[in-house]
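Lab meeting prep.
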Amino acid sequence: PLKLFCRGSLPRVKGTFEADDLEQPEAAQVVRDKAGVPHITAATEFDVFFLNGVAHGQDRLWQLHSGRRLAAGRLSEFAGLRALELDRLSRQLGFRHLAEGDL
């Protein structure tokens, strides 16, 4: 049962998917080698960066999620009380406000 539960949280790295945000989807692809390392080809720089984000999300979604929460001062919502001081510091330094200014 635990193996089946954990397997559902693994990233899907085989097959194809469509992304409406790509500029030239017909020329864009991510191919993984035997070690699982992604190799990206695309016609535009934008598509390369977009697909890099997709591959990064597939491999390290937990890290992206925790980094966003850390910057927003909301890490303790899932990490518990041990992260409360980090949340306070992040809020005092205004990381979320600074990040929103870049968007």
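Slide two material, second protein:
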Amino acid sequence: MKTKSQNAKTNIEISVKIGIYLSEIYNYIENIFQKLVEKLNRINNFKKCKK
């Protein structure tokens, strides 16, 4: 049987791992959106040049 402090430590470790995982997902999604914005800006610049 684990003691309460061991359980608390395990819960904190799990929470930290989840937090790190979520921040990695957030960074990945943010990266994708930045690339999309860059592509849209290039398309807009191209359209402006053609006019």
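Talking points for slide two:
The chain is about 90% helix and 0% strand.
The chain has a mean pLDDT of 93.
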